[in-house]
Amino acid sequence: MPETSEPTGPTPRTHVIGFRAAEQLLAARDPRGAVKLLDGVVAAHPENTAARLLRARAFFAAAQLRAAELEFGIVLEREPDNAFAHFALGRTYERQGRPEQATRHFRLAAALDPNPEYVKAARFES
């Protein structure tokens, strides 16, 4: 009778577990731990926009603003109508001292979704 071998590396199931664990770490204010888990998920599934968005949020929370900017940019290339990604990229630019770029993304977010937080950040009255 042939032996069945167990997978030796990460499997799709372990990537889902890693994604869920990263969500929990981010919620528990451990963004660097979340990034570590998400690095493997994104490496295995670079097309997974949800994983990239979560990693971008973790980079932002860890004050790794250039990495957050890059990840939010990838998300927006794939989902240009993602209001949250525009808003979060605006916050990233704001923290980097780039107000013109921030306002552009805040206004795009507010145009896509009239969430009061997005509208307030967009400063349409200015």
Automatic annotation (TrEMBL):
It holds the Pfam family TPR_19. It comes from the Bacteria. InterPro entries: TPR-like_helical_dom_sf, TPR_2, TPR_rpt. TPR repeats lie at residues 83-116. PROSITE patterns: TPR. Keywords: Repeat, TPR repeat. This is Tetratricopeptide repeat protein.
